[in-house]
Amino acid sequence: MGTLLVARHGETTWNRDGRIQGWAPSRLTDQGQTQAIALGSWLDDRYTVDRVFASDLRRTRETAAAAGDGYTGLPDPEFDTEWRERGFGIMQGLYADELLDEYPDHQRDASVISLDASPEGGEGIPTFRQRVESAWQRAIATTDAGETTLVVTHGGVIKVLLAKLTGKDPDAALAESSQANCAVNEIRLDGDDPELVGEELTGWRSLLD
Fold it and tell me: What is the pLDDT of residues 114-132, one digit of tens each?
């Protein structure tokens, strides 16, 4: 039985400011760095991580590096574009309260750009889901029994994965708010039915008190 740990990146400057990130090279805030170090320490106390996959975007690179400061001997991450956030094209960089003013045809709640349209220069939802599915299958295939793989990725990716694991309507899942920065989801790989055994775990916060 293998284990997948899927974590969101730490807080970024654009998270703090309420801007749409997509593939932007937004950096971690000081708080985000602290979160990621605490995440690494928390993981070190509980898991033996055999490999690390991460999105190649700056915020996930910085999160993986900071987690390594907290986790002694954390394997070097393998960066992969398939673990990226959804590409939002021309909408990238907008503030949340600007979106409907600029693009009123795009329905949006607090966390997701239009479920039924592709932003100019960005990804449609079906393309995004297919990409995440490919990354997911690769992570499963490379995690042998008794091994633990850590994935450092993004809020939208995690929504897609959790919808798959829980049977939730995928469009409804994408319309929900993203998990907390550096939240972890534990998935048990046992046979053909991966099981979500821990959702939005943030026990590392106790290390910040």
Answer: 555 677 777 888 899 999 9
Two tokens, residue 74? 């954390």
Per-residue b/e over 33-56, b at no fewer than 16 CB within 10 Å?
bbbbbbbbbbbbeeeebbbbbbbe
φ, ψ for residue 207 (rounded to 5)?
A: -80, -10
Residue 159 CA to residue 154 CA, distance in Å, equals 9
Q: Which helix (DSSP H) or strand (DSSP E) does residue 200 occupy?
A: strand 195-201
Taking the model in full, what pTM does it have? 0.91
Alpha-carbon span 192 to 57, nearest angstrom: 31
- Hey, what domains does the chain have and what are their CATH numbers? 2-208 (3.40.50.1240)
pLDDT score for 149: 99
Q: Which of 11, 85, 123, 154 is catalytic?
A: 85
- In the annotation, is 147 catalytic? no
Q: How far apart are CA 132 and CA 142, in angstroms?
A: 16
DSSP conformation letters of 153-186: E-HHHHHHHHHHHHT--HHHHHTSPPPPTT-EEE
User: Which residue out of 9, 11, 62, 123 is catalytically annotated?
Assistant: 9
Specify whether 154 is catalytic: no
Written as six digits, the tokens of 122 are: 């960005």
